[in-house]
Write a structure and sequence with these properties.
Length: about 290
């Protein structure tokens, strides 16, 4: 359905015109999808991560839609207006890869540019590896190739020890209730994100991404083998990201058979979409149009 909601998000008042639709993902999980831009525009699929929704990409959606692209921004399973299944296994990356294929099928797109962040980037790498005929180009924001992440060494693993905490049912939820605001201190949409996580089942659904894909065993086990990435890839990193270092991104090149481009946005942290929207938009338009 078409709608023009007037919303306040992160101290920014927006008038957004979108086509919203419901897509049935794996296991019948409902995926809410927001489509903007001309129907004949080059398609761009945006995939967010934890603890966000499609709104994280609002500045990029606005810029690319204005540039003539057709933007497709779903709430990934467990987030926003999409369904939140209770089964932890429902949040395995393979299910989100399949969800995105269903989304592209529903909007009539054979092949899309994919711009992905955080857990969405992990799924984006999976989409490019296992369903290469559906991905034109990949932009990985913050998170490098899964194997490069595993190869990045001791420092990188120490940066993400919080993932072990997130694996603990009940305890993680209680901890976040006490310290979540501090953990998200650098998120420019912090208050809106915290309010979103207070919705019934939302916090546990977000943690289920970690419980399904980043169990304690993954700290010592080798990463899963992925087919090489054959499409052109751009990796973008914010040097102030406290969880993700440069090596896990630059090491991605070894696992890519297509062209590779690496960009750092100085002064930005984990949420580059909000820290430096104009610079990220410039990079996207340049890379996707090249």
């Amino acid at each position: 359905m078409s709608h023009c909601p007037h919303e306040v998000w992160g101290n920014v008042t927006l008038l957004v015109t979108v086509l919203g639709m419901r897509v049935a993902g794996v296991g019948g999980v409902g995926i809410e999808v927001f489509v903007e831009g001309p129907k004949d525009g080059t398609p761009v699929l945006f995939m967010h991560g934890w603890p966000d929704t499609h709104r994280l990409w609002r500045h990029q959606v606005a810029a690319l839609s204005a540039a003539g692209y057709r933007t497709i921004a779903p709430d990934l399973r467990g987030f926003g207006e999409s369904d939140r299944p209770e089964d932890v296994a429902a949040y395995k990356i393979a299910n989100t890869v399949a969800d995105m294929v269903a989304v592209l099928d529903e909007v009539g797109v054979d092949k899309a540019n994919v711009v992905a962040h955080d857990w969405g980037a992990v799924a984006g790498w999976g989409l490019a590896a296992f369903v290469p005929d559906r991905v034109e180009r990949l932009v990985a924001v913050s998170v490098g190739h899964p194997k490069a992440f595993a190869e990045a060494g001791f420092e990188q693993r120490m940066r993400v020890l919080y993932m072990l905490l997130f694996n603990l049912p009940v305890i993680a939820e209680q901890w976040f209730g006490m310290f979540g605001a501090q953990m998200l201190a650098s998120h420019r949409d912090r208050e809106a994100v915290l309010a979103e996580l207070e919705r019934p089942g939302a916090l546990t659904a977000g943690f289920n991404w970690y419980r399904a894909n980043a169990s304690p065993r993954t700290i010592v086990n080798p990463p899963p083998e992925l087919p090489p990435i054959r499409c052109p890839v751009m990796g973008v990193l914010g040097p102030r990201d406290i969880a993700l270092g440069e090596k896990q991104m630059t090491g991605s090149q070894a696992h890519i058979e297509g062209s590779w481009r690496y960009e750092k946005i100085e002064g930005a942290g984990h949420w580059l979409q909000l820290d430096a929207p104009d610079e990220l938009n410039r990079l996207l338009v340049d890379f996707l149009g090249s």
